[in-house]
Amino acid sequence: MLEKIHFAGKYARKTTAVLTVLTVLLLLELLLFCSSPVLMARQLETIVDDIDHCTVEGYYTMKDIGSKDVILVTARKMNAGDEYINQENNLYEVERIEGRTAWARFKGRIELSHFSAEMVWGKIEGDAFISEAQADGEDFKIGIYHSHGAESYVPSDGSESIPEGGGILKVGEVLAERLRDNQLAVAYSSETHVPHDAGAYQRSRRTVEELLRDGSNALFDVHRDAVPAAEYKETVQGEPTVQIQLVVGRQNQNVQTNRSFAESMKRVTDDTHPGLIKGILMADGSYNQDMAPLSLLLEVGSHENTREGAERSVSLFAETVSVYFRGQEGAAALEGIGSTALRSVLWVVLITGLAVGVYMLVSTGGRDELRSKIKHFFTREFSEFRGGNKRNENEE
Question: Under a CB-based contact definition with an 8 Å cutoff, are residues 102 and 60 in contact?
Fold first, then answer.
């Protein structure tokens, strides 16, 4: 009997020792997990990124601490330390949150980064995700996807969210098509990653992995905001336009590269289509931007803007992306000014022609005399112009 008791006690002590070791190992694993910035960022994604993003009345208002002026209205949850570069390149930093008001201090007007295409390629060359195709010198590829593929535009789609696939997918498709039109390689995913909950960014993370394996080395996660339509309306090159906002996640190891990427993209857009970029928001979270150094989240208008307006905006943005990645070749393809400016030039030519026509009609005294002068010009004087060089040679 005593031997049985002794054996039971010895077994209990061994069991306790094993449990103690397992407990210590579990605590060490948790400690290591929480000390990893990347893993912490992934957890912040599920807590921060999706909260209030698509609530119609849940947006935040950023205000200047000094002037009390409204700087930004956004459905993204704001935190102290968030930064914002507005359309005029003024930098603000959030100091405190009161309810849904983010009080920010003006830090000064900044010079946007000149993060060139050559510098971008250099960064990618050193990245672990570079594909065999890029190693062989093939074209730069852009990946496009939607973490919130149910997002829609109420005036065009009839709802702010469509679980089967919202209007945002059509906006992403147009962006992909226009980039291809501008001779850029594109990989596009129409996966919706529904439902729109705290796990959406974890599900879209798998899509990002697929895009990277496919050779993408710049990523655009296309969204729309959830604020009043007026917040994203601007006149761009004489036409009412839905603006695009760039979002960079502060909680990832690529934040400085992604920020430089966003700033330089805005700088080029300010030259090609001034006013198209609303601003750059550096928000708490990761948005999967820890997976690649050239990643941007695009807010293309709001749920109250039209989808057609958003599609036109990404078409303009595609021209900017072409200039950014293809340099002078991309600029030449756009003829330096883009289709909108070209239409403006044609209108000037048309109006000038009409003005000249009216002047000639008045000065000649009637349509018959005007017709006679025009006929005279094209039959005699124009023919002399074509043969003038030959006659001049004979005279000499």
Answer: yes
**Of residues 391 and 134, more confidently modeled:** 134
Task: Reduce the DSSP state of residue 172 to 3 states and report it.
Answer: helix
Q: How far is CA 38 from CA 34, 245, 262, 344, in A?
A: 9, 25, 21, 49
Q: How many CB atoms lie within 10 A of CB 367?
A: 9
Name every residue whose Cβ is closer than 8 Å to that of residue 348 and which is 6 or more positions away in sequence: none
- Token readout for 50 is 């999706």
| Residue 140, token pair as written in the block | 């730069």
SS3 94: strand
Residue 147 in tokens: 């973490």
Residue with tokens 């009997």: 1
What is the C-alpha end-to-end distance of the chain, expressed in Å? 138
Distance separating alpha carbons of residues 163 and 148, to the nearest angstrom: 10
Selected residue with higher pLDDT from 375 and 61: 61
Do residues 83 and 94 make contact, with C-beta atoms less than 8 angstroms apart? Answer: yes
d(Cα 95, Cα 265) in Å, to the nearest integer? 27
Rounded CA separation 225/244 (Å): 10
Q: Determine which helix (DSSP H) or strand (DSSP E) holds 257, and give its type and residue range.
A: helix 255-272
Q: DSSP 3-state assignment of 281?
A: strand
Which residue type, as a one-letter code, is found at position 260? S
Query: Measured between alpha carbons, how far is 189 from 163 in angstroms, rounded to an integer?
Result: 16
Is residue 396 scored above 50 in pLDDT? no
36 contacts: CB under 8 Å, gap ≥ 6: none
pLDDT recorded at residue 6? 47
Residue 276 has φ and ψ, to the nearest 5°, of -65, -40
Q: What is the pTM of this model?
A: 0.71
